[in-house]
Amino acid sequence: MAVKSHASAVVLIPPTCRWNLIQTIRRVHDRNVRRWMPHVTLLYPFLPFKHYSNQILDLLSDACKTLDAFDVTFRMFRSFKYEKSSYTLWLDPEPNHGFDELQAALQGRFPGYSDVRAHRGGFTPHLSVGQVRGETAHGEILQKLQDGWSPLTFRADRISLIWRLGSPDDVFRVHREIILGSGHVVEPKEQ
Q: Is there a domain that residue 2 lies in?
């Protein structure tokens, strides 16, 4: 059985120069804006930080060597419905197939970490921007976000291995970035 931690993940983070509009929305609607940077989750929960090693980085690198960087556009807002009338609002990355291939390559190296595929419908790449309760509020907020949005495009060229301490008020930080295409493991850029 795989050792897992909700304080560790493998994610794709948009370049910080693209965060402004996303963070403006998240500051209003996302209770997790402080803990998580904008991201698309690929493996979560993941290995606890104390298990990070060169072997883990090598496996991540091997997965990334097999895939090229790809362009991503966030054009549409969507939502997941949870119990009763509770929703998570998210941006839908287009095209999805780049994320599907990337997640499958990572999953192939870490088969015990399939939680993101365990949902009905399997893996749905998304960038969470908030939570809302109530049918009416959900519809109104989703429409307002969509009406005020201009498509945001960037080059997805790396994944990030992130972690945080176990305390409830700690924030995620990048441990290492792995470049798509080359598999090079690099120190994180300033966030």
A: no
Residue 183: both structure tokens together: 């598999």
List of E strands, the chain? 8-12, 40-43, 70-81, 86-94, 127-133, 152-156, 158-163, 173-179, 185-186
Query: Looking at the whole model, is its pTM more than 0.90?
Result: yes
For residue 144, give its domain range.
Answer: 8-186
107-120 pLDDT, tens digit per residue, is 999 999 999 999 88
Residue 91's region, left for phi above 0, alpha for psi from -120 to 50, else beta, is beta
Residue 157 maps to a domain: yes
Give the domain CATH number at 181: 3.90.1140.10
Nearest to 19 by CA among 8, 27, 29: 27
d(CA 57, CA 142): 38
Residue type, 188: P
